[in-house]
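Please fill in the sequence for the structure shown.

STRUCTURE ENCODING:
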């Protein structure tokens, strides 16, 4: 589905990240050299480029291929866009017998295909689950985007967000006064909802917990109800906590463009905030790729975190945090408060296939479901082949959550919508919970489009917060 890709980044979006402002002269040689550098630096990338045998196991596993039927959206087809260039310049057969092995020169036509189809990959890693060799298209997609950024062809949506996060501290570009004012309004909403003075603190020194959450939680439905749920949990458990105006963003879009240098800059903001505020614990809010970056990369990007309390994991997901409190009896639920909901759960890709949660295998699947069953009476899973490690992507991940790509986002959501429709028809599901800001934003758009008869996507911690037994309201 060649729709040209997202809007191209302007110099103001590229240059602060260390990239050329626009496509440079001699970009072909620079791109080829960067490809060779990445393949030599990251052994996994070279293995993925060398090992495909075209067995076809991945063919129908990509949600974008299922939605668009474009052969270049087959995982192997998308991989080959980069692999063909790699073979041409970095294998013996490709150098001397290019047509025999399908190798191609680095041309503008090839670059345009990269820009289109590597922005039709949400880096969800579902194809790698089914590949007998474990080839990870996400790594190939990240490499291709990094090469494009290196020659001055970046995505406006991704790069503009990364600049805001690096310079202001969150993806929205929300300065400290606006953030504090927004959270003050949220405290008023909590008072109206519960009758209790529940705080949403910012920059509190000496708090037990620094919560780092996606900035979507500060301003929009359904995310803000999740942040209210976090606040209720901390209040009910009597645990002091704070947000940081300096590092108020958990999401790290630099992962989507394959830039570890830029990932590191944002991770170091979080470390600096934790040090300066003197907290004991770091907890990450409901965001799929934020958790992947925190779980998989924080320690090498910004660690060690040896200044935090060693009795707690670093980092810790808010779901695991709440689950531990409930298991210990520190918080209690009244499930009947959610009796107006029949719930299902969407396993977000980066939580399900790229990280773990808790101290036992499979915690990323079990813990959220434990909390949902503990806080509501009516929960049902989608079909087994569409959840856990086989979950379908929402269609908006991997830096694709931009209106420039709405057509492909809608088509990419099709497999998840089909699975959801099954439980709507069979079980009367009214709400779907998720623990990813991107998923919640995407589903808010595509659920009405598909006319599912159910348009309620909510935060898991909204369900938790609605069921929490809190103190006596103020008189």
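FILLED IN BY: designer on duty
SEQUENCE:
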């Amino acid at each position: 589905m060649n729709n040209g890709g997202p809007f191209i980044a302007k110099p103001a979006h590229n240059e602060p990240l260390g990239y050329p402002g626009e496509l440079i002269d001699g970009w072909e040689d620079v791109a080829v050299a960067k490809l060779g550098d990445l393949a030599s630096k990251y052994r996994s990338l070279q293995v993925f480029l060398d090992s495909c045998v075209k067995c076809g196991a991945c063919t129908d596993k990509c949600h974008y291929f299922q939605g668009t039927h474009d052969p270049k959206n087959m995982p192997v087809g998308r991989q080959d866009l980069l692999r063909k260039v790699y073979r041409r310049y970095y294998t013996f057969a490709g150098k001397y017998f290019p047509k025999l092995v399908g190798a191609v020169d680095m041309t503008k036509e090839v670059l345009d295909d990269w820009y289109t189809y590597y922005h039709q990959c949400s880096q969800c890693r579902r194809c790698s689950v089914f590949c007998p060799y474990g080839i990870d298209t996400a790594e190939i997609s990240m490499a291709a985007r990094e090469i494009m950024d290196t020659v001055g062809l970046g995505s406006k949506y991704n790069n503009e967000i990364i600049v805001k996060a690096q310079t202001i501290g969150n993806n929205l570009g929300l300065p400290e006064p606006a953030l504090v004012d927004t959270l003050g309004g949220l405290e008023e909403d909590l008072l109206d909802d519960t009758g209790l003075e529940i705080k949403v603190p910012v920059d509190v020194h000496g708090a037990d917990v620094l919560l780092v959450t996606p900035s979507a939680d500060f301003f929009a439905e359904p995310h803000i109800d999740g942040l209210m749920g976090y606040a209720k949990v901390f209040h009910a458990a009597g645990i002091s906590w704070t947000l940081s105006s300096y590092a108020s963003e958990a999401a790290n879009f630099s992962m989507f463009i394959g830039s570890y240098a830029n990932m590191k800059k944002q991770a170091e903001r979080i470390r600096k905030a934790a040090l300066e505020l003197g907290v004991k614990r770091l907890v990450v809010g409901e965001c799929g790729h934020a958790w992947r970056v925190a779980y998989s990369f924080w320690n090498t990007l910004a660690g060690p975190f040896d200044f935090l309390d060693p009795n707690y994991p670093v980092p810790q997901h808010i779901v695991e945090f709440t689950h531990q409190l409930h298991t210990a009896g520190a918080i209690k639920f009244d499930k009947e408060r959610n009796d107006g909901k029949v719930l299902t759960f969407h396993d977000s890709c980066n939580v399900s296939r790229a990280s773990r949660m808790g101290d036992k295998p499979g915690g990323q699947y079990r813990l959220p479901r434990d909390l949902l069953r503990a806080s509501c009476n009516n929960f049902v899973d989608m079909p087994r082949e569409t959840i856990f490690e086989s979950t379908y992507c929402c269609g908006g991940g991997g830096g694709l959550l931009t209106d420039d790509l709405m057509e492909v986002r809608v088509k990419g959501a099709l497999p998840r919508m089909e699975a959801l429709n099954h439980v709507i028809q069979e079980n009367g599901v009214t709400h779907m919970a998720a623990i990813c800001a991107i998923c919640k934003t995407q589903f808010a758009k595509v659920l009405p489009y598909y006319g599912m008869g159910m348009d309620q996507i909510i935060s898991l911690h909204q369900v938790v917060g609605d069921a929490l037994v809190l103190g006596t309201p103020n008189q």
